[in-house]
Amino acid sequence: MDKIKTEILSPAGDFSALQAAVRFGADAVYMGGDIFTMRAAADNSREELKKSSEYAHKNGVKLYITLNTLPHVEELPMLPDYLRFLSDIGVDAVIVADLGVLSLCKKHIPNMEIHMSTQTGVVNYETANMLYELGAKRVVLARELTLKEIAEIRAKTPPELEIETFVHGSMCVSFSGRCLLSQYLLGRDANRGECAQPCRWGYHLMEEKREGLYFPIFEDKNGTYILNSKDLCMIEHLEKLAAAGVTSFKIEGRAKSDYYVGAVTNAYRLAVDGLGKEFDHRLYDELLKVSHREYYTGFYFDEKPENSQCYKSGGYVRTYDVVGIVTGSDDNYIYLTQKNKFDKGDEIDFLIPREVSFTQKIEEIYNEEGEIIETANHAEMKLKIPAFRELPIGTYLRKMRKQ
Q1: Disulfide check for 384: which of 95, 333, 352, 367 has CB 3.0–4.6 Å away?
Q2: Residue 389 has what DSSP assignment?
């Protein structure tokens, strides 16, 4: 079959995560600044955004900036100056959810691409066409759509309108990410970037006249996680998404570590590069090595609702720890910064950009003074190991956790 042209769009909460996304194969990266972003904790200054734009473009990667909150009236006066700044540093597109923000973008940065966020809730072709007429270059469809619905939207919208959908990561118990639960329970507005994720908490049922007497909703002494969605994973079905008309595959995770971003980006990079060939199931195994909840395919295949939730735990599955990051190499040694404890003789998993990971036994470890040591047990210590092959900067060393 012909090569399918699609974009891998990776998240970045900070510059370190952006570097990982670029190294491991993203075509584009989305991140937020310090205002108008759905991840308020990812507080990137203007200087950091400028540095991120320069790094991305130097490496042939596009940068999209999120403006996808629903701003209140007192926030709007800050937007025009911010928009002009984003244009000045060469941002490739802004991601917006609010029609007022869309209007201000058209007024103040008329040449900037506008992508309509999943927060907009686009579920049909009439809405997609209307947004295109208003100036949108791309729509990020609501996560609640099936492949069949996406294909119909693609067939009934202009081919110039790009379609983006999520392929991996956390799912919200909400509609298109619009949730009131955090604001209701904690006064933290999820629609303004302050979500506390109460949908991950455990819940019990209490009868109003029996105060203090709690009943598990299922027969489990720990209660049940009735709002805790499984994680989305579509890596085995990318050809179906492309066939339905999706042109950008979006990975969720602006609150995740640089390692998570790099590992997931790498798996999807290899999967996209292999489209048209038999799927390499090692790539799914790669996604089991990052912190995750149980995986499922979301709404794409009209999944039964009862199959979408993690009822037993609100936590994550973590089977590997990052123990080091490659900082350089020569003919004799590979140089590392230590992240977690590992020992001489350990079997270490090496995650290299644009390759499937492999395992190698550590025969020797040297500290910064060149002394042989048995254990690397101090965070951020500088180390070296004998070179067994060339490893690029940013390669991650992982060690399986003891079960």
Answers
A1: 333
A2: S
